[in-house]
Design goal:
The chain has about 450 residues and is mainly beta. The protein contains six helices and 23 strands. α2 packs antiparallel against α5. The chain folds into two domains: about 230 residues, no CATH class; about 150 residues, Lipocalin. A hairpin with a 4-residue loop joins β6 and β7. Helix content is about 15%, strand content about 40%. The N terminus and C terminus are likely disordered. The strands form three sheets. The protein has a 19-stranded antiparallel sheet that branches. A two-stranded antiparallel sheet has the order 6-7. The chain has a two-stranded antiparallel sheet with strand order 15-16.
């Protein structure tokens, strides 16, 4: 067969194009040079990161291994983890709750408060959220530890297509001696090494996902393993392109057979000015006139009894610890210390501090942690500290259970002064605490005590 001169020329030209494309791809896929560019790009993104605020919502689930797998010791962590990965159906969902917090990033330091609280200080997240698994470091800490510092060891794993996008994958390891990552429980805190991987867009070199898990942990932590997955996106904020997390997934397996899974999403991120004051004490009240001004000087004495009813329902399907809540005085209260009579119907401002749904012995239960923070006296929010005395129930128009309001145990806990806890036993899974639910409280002096959490790198 004869091949014409035109065909030979065309084929040679196409061959040169293919060779050129292969050469370009080979140059693009220089693993070391590409990694260097990715690290520079991440470092630049961190350095450009302005002061900003986000609201984070954390969905928390706790699972328990089926009876056939429970009762294992710390020495059998690998076997237990392998069983869970192989047969996830053997995990039983036993508890769920939700948190809603504001997080502020300033000079690469994360500060937390309940949503809308407007009070940021040097409290750790564990001092705000007293129980359950928490995690920090999603914004800049992990990025700096892995991409900017020189503690991580990288290995190029290859190039692939994900959802029509060409991505690069690298594995990494941060040994214990180079790590600042800590994992904590109620009594211990230990530094650990960790290993993981990340993916980046092959064209733009934007970081897409970062995943890692801890090295084997010391037995005193009573934690088999902890793993995290962080997904990132770029957004425009006042003309600056910022690398922010869009979703964080955390899993922690305990030696007792419980595994916690947290999913955190971020909304409402916006920049605040550098001169804005984020760290402050309770905001001062606005001064009025006449009787309103007198209310500023009211000092409620200890032991003042108040019956407070919810002014709104609380639905665990949508509400979260951190959400503000309103109440009203169900009856007038006379303060002997100030001589002030606080009338029935006075507005009370508070916050949900815990809202845990859990199963126990085949029954569905709900635990509400509630904190009333201020009375509106003469149009002024007057701060107060309360302890719960008893749950009273509510009026006849409430949504009742089995034709009667259930017996609701109420309690205080020393580690959370000012918070009243109410236990709703045997309620339907879709039960919402109705408006009008009432409890008796008493004014007290309170003090705070720190707790523990999972730390950052």
């Amino acid at each position: 067969m004869r091949i014409s001169w035109f065909c030979r020329l065309t084929c040679s030209f196409i061959g040169l194009l293919l060779c050129g494309q292969l050469l370009i791809q080979a140059q693009e896929l220089d693993p070391d040079e590409t990694l260097l560019q990715i690290r520079k790009q991440v470092a630049a993104a961190i350095s450009r990161l302005p002061n900003y605020l986000c609201t984070e919502t954390v969905e928390r689930q706790t699972f328990f291994i089926a009876d056939a797998l429970s009762g294992r010791t710390a020495g059998a962590c690998n076997q237990m983890a392998a069983e869970i990965d192989k047969s996830p159906k053997d995990l039983k969902l036993v508890a769920t709750d939700r948190l809603r917090l504001d997080v502020a990033l300033s000079r690469q330091s994360e500060m937390y408060s309940w949503v809308g609280e407007g009070r940021f200080d040097d409290r750790n997240l564990s001092e705000i959220v007293k129980h359950g698994t928490t995690s920090t470091g999603a914004f800049g800490s992990f990025l700096h530890a892995i991409f900017v510092s020189h503690g991580a060891i990288f290995t190029f794993k290859g190039r692939s297509n994900e959802n029509g996008r060409s991505v690069l994958q690298y594995d990494f390891a941060v040994p214990l001696e180079a790590s600042g990552y800590t994992v904590s429980n109620e009594t211990s805190s230990e530094r650990t090494g960790y290993t993981g991987s990340f993916t980046a867009d092959a064209k733009t070199l934007d970081l897409l996902e970062l995943a890692f898990r801890t090295d084997p942990l010391p037995p005193e932590l009573k934690i088999c393993r902890s793993s995290s997955t962080l997904r990132y996106t770029r957004i425009q904020m006042k003309g600056v392109e910022v690398l922010l997390p869009s979703e964080v997934l955390v899993r922690m397996l305990g030696t007792d057979g419980h595994e916690s899974r947290n999913r955190t999403v971020f909304t409402g991120c916006h920049q605040f000015m550098g001169e804005s004051k984020l760290i402050f004490d309770e905001p001062p009240a606005e001064i009025g006139s006449g009787e309103t001004a007198k209310a500023l000087n009211v000092k409620l004495g200890d032991g003042l009894k108040m019956s407070i009813a919810l002014a709104q329902p609380i639905d665990p399907q949508s509400a979260a610890a951190g959400d503000p809540v309103n109440g009203v005085l169900a009856k007038a209260a006379k303060d002997s210390a100030s001589g002030l009579t606080i009338p029935k119907g006075t507005k009370v401002n508070g916050r949900i501090v815990g809202l845990l749904s859990y199963d126990q012995q085949g029954a569905s239960n709900l635990e509400l942690g509630l904190k009333w923070e201020s009375l509106e006296i003469g149009g002024i929010g007057h701060q107060m500290k309360l302890a719960v005395r008893a749950a009273i129930g509510g009026s006849s128009h409430l949504a009742l259970i089995h034709s009667h309001f259930p017996d609701i145990p109420a309690m205080n806990r020393p580690e959370q002064p000012g918070v009243g806890f109410f236990l709703f036993h045997g309620v339907p899974k879709d039960y919402a605490i109705p408006a009008g639910f009432e409890a008796e409280w008493v004014t007290v002096a309170a003090s705070a005590k720190a707790d523990s959490t999972q730390g950052e790198p």
